[in-house]
Amino acid sequence: METIIILLTGFLFSCGFYLMLQRNFTRMLIGLLFLSQAANLVILVLPGLGTGISAIVRYGATVPPPGHPDPLPQALILTAIVIGFGVIAFAIVLLKKAHHDLKTHDLDHLTETDV
Amino acid sequence: MEWYLIGLVALLGGSCVWPRLAREHSVAAGWLSALVPAGIFVWLVLQAGAIADGKFPVWSVEWVPQMGVALGFRLDGPGLLLSLLVTGIGALILIYGGGYLKGSAQSAPFFGFVQLFMLAMLGVASADNLLVLFVFWELTSVASYLLIGLNHQDETARKSALRALLVTGGGGVALLAGILLVGAVGGSFSLSELQGRGDLIRSSPFYVGIFILVVLGAFTKSAQVPFHFWLPDAMVAPTPVSAYLHSATMVKAGVFLLAKFLPILGGTVLWHDTLTLVGASTMLAGGVLALAQTDLKRLLAYSTMSALGTLVMLLGMGSDLAIKAAMVFLVVHALYKAPLFMIAGVVDKATGTRNTTLLQGLGKPLPILSFAAALAAFSMSGLPPFIGFIGKELLYEAEMGAVHFSILLTTLGFAANAVNVAVALKVGISPFRGKMDMPQINPKARRKGLLIGPLLLAVTGALFGLFPGWLGEGLIDAAVRDIIGHPFDSSLKLWHGFSLLLAISAITVIVGILLYVYLDRIRSALILGLQRFPSGASEQFDRLLSSAVAAAGRITLFFQHGNLRLYLAVIILALALLTTAALVSTGLPGWPENGPVRFLPVGISLLMGMAGIVAIRSRSTVMAVLAMGGVAYGVALLFALVGAPDLALTQVLVETLTLVLFALVMRKLPRIDASPEAPRGRGRWELGIALAGGLALTAGLLAVRAAPLPEDLRVSADMAAWSLPAAHGRNVVNVILVDFRALDTLGEICVLAIAAIGVAGLLLGSGRRNVRAELAVATPLFRTAVSWITPLLYFISVLLLLRGHNEPGGGFIGGLVAGAGLILKRLTHAERPLHAGRGPMLCMAAGIAISLVSTLPAVFSGLPFMQGVWLGSVWLPLVGKTKFGTPFLFDCGVYLVVVGACLLILTRLIRSEDSKPLAQQ
Amino acid sequence: MSDPMREFPLYLCLLVPLAAAIGQILLLGRCRSQRVVAIGSTALLTVLGGMLVAAVKAGGPVVLDAGGWAAPLGIRLQADMLSALMVAITGFIGLCGAIHGLAEVPTSDERRGYHPLYQFLLFGVCGAFLTNDLFNLYVWFEVMLLSSFALLTLGGGKAQIEGAVKYVVLNITASTIFLIGAGVLYATLGTLNFNDVAVRIAAGLGSQAGIRFAAVLLMLAFAIKAGMFPLYGWLPSSYHTPRHTVSAVFAGLLTKVGVYALIRTFGSAFVAERDFILPILWTVSLLTMVIGVCGAMSQFHTRRILSFHIISQIGYMTLGLALGTAAAISAAIFYIIHHIIVKSNLFFVASVIDRIGGGENLKRTGGLYRSAPWLAGLFLIPALSLGGIPPFSGFWAKLALLKELFNANAWFAGAVALAVGVCTLFSMMKIWAEAFWKDRPAEAKEFRPVGFAHILPIVILAAATIALSVYPSWLFDLADIAAQQLSPAPNQ
Question: What is the nearest CA distance from C383 to chain A, expressed in angstroms?
């Protein structure tokens, strides 16, 4: 099953890349979001998916039951999700401000600071 | 040696002090500042005896041992010679400059930079370590740049200064490479040691490289062809600068370097041929070009260039006689060129022009000056009994005694000397003959300080001619000896008896006089001839420079086009290429390992794939956003299905928030349709790149999955094992977040806080103060529903917080739920203005503070930073038995930060919308 | 064994900026107190950094396992000489920025949270330098990055927003690539700790494909953040847009974190992959040096020239890394420290030129040689140093690098390095000729007075450069120690 998920992430990466190359700023942001979703999936799937059992120690045991997905990538992904949210929130507001100040969301027009 | 160093330090100090004085009292500054170089001069003279005996003053201290650089000084013969020139002429120049620049704004910087230059030149003359020499070498270039640019408001001055800097700097860079190589081959950077290892270096395979690099450095500094063009252009500098740097001292540095390197690199065919060829060409070119000039200073500049060529040629010839001629000529040239320059300056000041065709009749108003001019001119022409005569004789002697090409060299030398005569007469005699055009000369030219330099130097030239032994024993002997490596007796004599040499000298003078007489005609012929060449070397250099800059600009524009999408495309392509390279270079992987296939996750994956396609192909961006939401929720479902409940909850909540943000922002953006224009074909390259990136990544990921690390070898194995026993938590993921890897979480909450502050900062000032929440959901029904839901949400959030350590939950999820509740509450209070106030900020700050504080009890208990300190356990309803300790406190801090951040971001965003009356149902 | 006396500078270097950030949030609105806190905390950070350097010099790397969990289970904070040096210089530049900010940052920015963001930035940078864990590094990168996003947009001018868009998007992409790399690394080697990665690779654990894939991803991500060719587009688009103080601190610190990450990753952890990675890095470094200086030569805007210089000089540093020997890395470390001091100084000078020289467009500036000779001298010191003129610090840095290049028979690279140095000098002298020597043209922007706080950082940094120029051997010593502590392998 991991293969299928990996193929899915590859597909999501391609979608993300394609969207990132669009001229519309909003679409580009969406592309970035695709990318981050796919990256999170990658972290989860590479060490191996579990069989649906969560990594929580049951009462009476001292270790989590076998078949749980690796807990460390879960923690990493959680951190990445939250950090990603912070970043995307800022980016979305930047989108708003850019539209408001620069009066465009066509990325090809943003060349003032370079030429 | 200590006195010498004190003198150097005094020069450094002087460069800071005298400019102050010079602003008001330029002349006084000149006299006072000349004391230090004069003192050094005296000290040097006193050392002459010891140096002649071979007892060199040395001084050395470790400077940068890692680079093999010791601040070492060693004054040998050639060094003494150069130092005497630098200090002696330097003192006179300072006095001259004080008078020349009096009242000008350039006076102060002149004193500062000239003393720095003097210091650097003395360093070049006496440094024993090649890298130390290089330090001073480059300092002379910098000082020269600043001095040429004294007239900085004039664009020609700026350009000339830049030209000089680039040429000498470029040569300097080559010299550095050469020094590094010679140091590597010879095993040391000390000149004295290297001079003893000449054979080793000459026989090394790097010899040619070292030779070319060192010689490049010397040639650029000493204005050899084809690097000569900066020298005449440097004449835009004020005359004191030209007299000092660009005739007597700085340009001699290259020759000096060659002299020092002669024992190391000399004696080979390469050395002989290159230096003689280049030197002779420069000698000739300088002479010819000199005849074409009408500006006094440019005349002298080209003739200096010619003299430098002569010196290089002599060093190239390499015979004992040639070296002796070179050392003598070094002194001779300085003794006549410097005064002539100074005189040219006075003439310029007196009449306001430097045009040789106009100048005449200055003999009457400036008698002493014309006397000095005559002396210098006669020395330059090589008339007895001046030192110039001795120098010329030695020159011919060396040329005729050359092993190869003696006839050619002698002829060229003859031509050059003849030109010298003509130039000397034109500069030193011609302006003072005849009757003056102007009624009166500028009285500023009569200042006494302006006379001393030329007079002293010219008279010295005469004296040395009459008593050459003063020069010979001690100075020349020592200089030559230290270059050729064995003792030498120069035996300079004025009179050698009637000989071929005398005859040639005489003929030279006669031809020179003829040249002088017919100078005007020769000049016009030359100018006509030179016009055949499309442009001079300077213009070609300028053109080269500007085309280089233009090319640089085009290259820059090509890569820095400003188009964000192209930048992204490059990154994606780089990713694809690197990944492919990595995979290809490690061989074909096997097929990935797979766990059991379950229907539901596969189904969700397919749905997510479809959502992805929708996102790409939809024309409306709203659809794209929703599709992305679909993908994210799908991911959340996958998380839940594989057994990561915390992840699933967080993902759902975060994605909902993200969608809300999008919704808020996109309300104001006009209906955004798919990319404008985009005719069919244009989308191809984007597709291609995207596919390339995606495929490469997929391949890489499959390859990784083909050989995963067994679970027990991973770090998480220990984490799972110790989660309950050591960290008192059942939810391993939460334990990792707040205990094992709490530092990550600390950073993470800071990221949230920063994002919130950043958003608030972006939005501050937009929108009105007391905007009411105008989302049209403030209906009574909604309000009632919300007023029931929100307490429930708060309760759940606290529950999640308390449970988190042992069940799915935790600070993040709890905080997000609480934040949702608070937002809903705010949205329904339509009467109250929706201003965020300082609440959320304080909440965030409190949260971080609590998390921070929770790391400290460990420190105060002598435990490592951030270690969990546990109190007892408590049984709570709905939660179960929980052990409380600092990790829980940490989680509370996380909770608060999440609440504050969400609140801040959302309320500011809502508030910033312009109040637009939506349909109030 | 935890040794509290040695450890406390280590975690205090993290806690001080964090506590200051919290304080600055609480003090929002009270600008004067905020400024005091800013100066106090950065000064304290500098002192702590110095103490850390001394501690490492005396007793070897200072190690702290956060939470008491031994690495690789927990996150290890490790201050070896390189980290300690970088933290010390961070505090130093932070202090200079705080002083300059006194004069330059307007109250409107302060009310939008300039001070907490500034402290968070330093917090992230210090964390990045002190951590020994790859994912923790990612978190610190994000802290630093998001602070820089926010600082970039403070003030809200159009140019800033446009620059920010490019900066934000490209850096988010780089972060995502970093994340993927971390995921791949964990799946392949089962650990996130740098030292442990090296140990496991040496023990033969993990598939070759996975290791190389992770290495490539990390290299790409760090190369983007460091501003290497061809991924540097975000830098010249954005670095010249925010407040001068912010530009100066960014220029000094942010890209160096990327270089530091490259050194940490490929100088110690992924040493086994050097045969594949270093040649790529080599070629890219040379191209970076050349293309960067092309930009500097052809621009006419002070900060854009300086921004392109950053790129070009980054090439020098990574060239040292790409050579691979401990001596070369030592030269690169010396170069980093020298460059941080000089670059930030030049940005501060550019700020003053903007106020009294007529703006940032060099075609419209002039006359400073006459009107502000003190500034002329203060400009020449870092400018000549950047151009590699002896005896300034830049010369020593270039000399050290050249020596290693020649030792390795890399003649072409040495020639390129020297040629780029001449071009760098040319571009610096262009600023000199246009802003100082040339007369002030009529279209110059109006004169705005400069205060003590504008000039003090310039003087401090110039003094640091002079100290480093006259007596460079102490830094060479420290850099040597740093390079030795990096590579477990013996000197090649």
Answer: 24
Interface list for C 302-321 with B (CB within 8 A): 308
In a domain, C421, yes or no: yes
Chain B CB within 8 Å of residue A32 CB:
no
Mean pLDDT of B83-94: 91
B631-635: list long-range contacts, CB under 8 Å, 24+ apart: B631/A12, B631/A34, B631/A37, B632/A33, B632/A37, B632/B658, B634/B604, B634/B605, B634/B607, B634/B608, B635/A37, B635/A40, B635/A41, B635/B608
- Looking at the domain assignment, is residue C245 inside a domain? yes
A114 in a domain, yes or no? Answer: no
- What is the span of the domain harbouring residue A55? 2-109
Q: What is the pLDDT of residues B164-199, one digit of tens each?
A: 999 999 999 999 999 999 998 888 888 888 888 888
Residues (pLDDT < 50) of chain C are: 1, 489-492
B763 — contact with chain C (CB < 8 Å)?
no
**Is the ipTM value over 0.85, yes or no?**
yes
Which amino acid type is present at position B592?
P
Closest CA in chain C for residue A39: C180
Q: Does B583 touch chain A (CB under 8 A)?
A: no
B601: its two tokens: 């996750």
Smallest CA–CA distance, residue B151 to chain C, in Å, is: 9
Q: To the nearest 10°, the Cα dihedral for C45, C49, C50, C55?
A: 140
By the CB < 8 Å criterion, does A102 face chain B?
A: no
Determine, yes or no, domain membership for A115.
no
Q: Give the pLDDT of residue B681.
A: 47
The number of distinct structural domains making up chain C is 1
Report the CATH number that the domain containing residue A15 is assigned in CATH.
1.10.287.3510
**C474 in any annotated domain:** yes
Rounded Cα distance, B626 and B679, in Å:
25
Mark yes or no for CB contact C237/A25 under 8 Å.
Answer: no
Closest CA to C229 of C281, C299, C152: C281
A7 domain residue, yes or no:
yes
Domain that holds residue C222: 4-486
pLDDT tens digits, one per residue of B455-503? 888 888 888 877 777 776 678 888 888 888 777 776 777 766 667 778 8
Q: Name the closest residue on chain B to residue A70, using Cα atoms.
A: B716
- CA of B562 to nearest chain A CA: how many angstroms apart? 5
Contact between A113 and C159 using a beta-carbon 8 Å cutoff: yes
- Tell me what pLDDT residue B473 has: 67
Amino acid B866 reads M
Could you report the per-residue pLDDT of A22-46, keeping only the tens digit for each?
Answer: 888 888 999 999 999 999 999 999 9
Q: What is the pLDDT of residues A2-23, one digit of tens each?
A: 888 899 999 999 999 999 998 8
pLDDT for res B836: 55
State the smallest CA–CA distance between residue C138 and chain A in angstroms.
9
DSSP, res C444: P
**What is the pLDDT at residue B886?**
85
Q: Is residue C492 part of a domain?
A: no
For chain A, the domain total comes to 1
Tell me: cis bond preceding C490? Omega within 30 of 0 counts. no
Give the one of A34, A77, A108 whose C-beta lies nearest to B628's C-beta.
A34
Residue B876 forms contact with C (CB below 8 Å): no
Cβ within 8 Å of C, B 531-550:
548-550
Tens digit of each residue's pLDDT (9 = 90 or more) over C308-352: 999 999 999 999 999 988 899 999 999 999 999 999 999 999 999
Burial B306-337 (b: 16+ CB within 10 A, else e): bbbbbbbbbbbbbebbbbbbbbbbbbbbbbbb
DSSP string, C407-442: HTT-HHHHHHHHHHHHHHHHHHHHHIIIIIISPPPT
Cα distance between residue B377 and residue C300, in whole Å: 49
The Cα C291–Cα C293 span in angstroms is: 5
Q: Is C293 on the interface with B (CB under 8 A)?
A: yes
